[in-house]
Request: fold
Amino acid sequence: MQESTSSRNAPQLHRALSLQDLVLLNISGIIGLSGLAQVAQFGFASIPLFILAIITFLIPSGLMIAELNTRMPEEAGFYLWTRSAFGDFHGYVAAWTYWLSNIVWLPTVMLLVSISALYIFGDSFLSLADNPWYNALVCLGILWLVTILNILGMERAKWIQNIGAIATWVCIALLLVVGIIFVSNNASAHPFSPGKLIPDVADFSLLPFFAIVAYCFGGLELAPIMAGEIQNPRKNIPRAILISSIAVSLLYIAGTLMLILTVPEGEVGIIEGVVQAFHAVSFPGIGAIGAVLVVLSTMGLFGAWMTGTARVPFVIGLDHYLPDAFAKVHPKWGSPYISLLMQAIVLTILFLSSIMGSTLKEAFLILLDMSIILYFIPYLYMFASLVWHLKENTGGEGSVALFRKSKAMGWLVASLGFGVTLFSIVISSMPTKDIENKMLFVVKVVGGAAVLIGAGLIVYYLKKREIAAPREVPTEKEDKL
Reply:
């Protein structure tokens, strides 16, 4: 078995996250309000799609993560699970693609904040939504604020996602009220019939929406990445997974249903759909309050992923496959500050390049689909590693009773999750019917992902050669000098 993080004399991080913090982290990190808007494009058929994704992806991934975390409850989570099962190379590929997926996706989260903020002031400033200078100012301000708070320590940074999770609850509760008011005064914005609940599987241009639905439920692996900063991670992470999975499922289904009821068919914006729903009700102040809640909720989402994602290059740095500076912890605040700073610099460059020269919608969809492909690659490794860890009985008894009774159930869960994840990777490279130049879209998404993965492999082999190179031992004369 590969060496664990703790056995490599890793710098000590502060254990600042309680069970309550973990539940709020999961809710904040999983529920993206832009996800509601994207899935609502599908109308009432999105509800059975959500249920299908819960059965085939959320439940298998929750069982898998709870089991693997109990067996290896250390900082870096999936990176260690993959590396111990398949070796350094595969651990690195899983970690690199995971980090890239979030680096590519986080600009879309920043855009949701900047665009939603405009709705606080009504219709007066909506013309700024496509203004690159406005978006750059707001988004980069958020990026560096969150980065600085993370550098100042988890004790401070955790409040971003905690407030965001609370705002998510309140936002969807208010969305329920808005939906009831709207439907009582008007008919449903989407005409309903029982046939509307059945997705049109013959329309292949709609298939990529299932990948988005499955992607909406990703995020349970985020907490184990920060296991070294969690109080009693062996027990608290599985408990948080159970509580937050139930909450997330209910919130997603309820929120999407309300969005469908209030925003007319074909008019749901892929980025700002939720704030559109609040503005659909002619009640003083509701639009502004809803926009504030969306901004706070999305800030929590952004903060959760900024925090967790920065730990990935930190642990790769511990293994010397990235420059050793990435493994440094701030002597006062106990944060991986070099990793956080470098991540913010990369995000700044990527964000500025993504908003220049493309329409906002096209840039959003390209970044989203590319991030789905990159994000699900580590999940393939995680589901495969579950089988290996069950076979080797790593770390002794796990936390999932189902697997203790029958290892065959572990194979079944791993196979189901692996298959759905692989299917989502394939269909996410397919353009939706909204894309005009479909071939160029595929080239940008698939080609962009391949280039980014290739760049990481070059770094890996260069560092591996450096690690393997024999170090010259200084002569006695040189030592004296």
Q: What stands out?
A: Confidence is low (pLDDT under 50) at residues 1-8, 477-481. The CA atoms of residues 131 and 439 lie 27 Å apart. The chain is about 70% helix and 0% strand. The two ends are 42 Å apart (CA to CA).
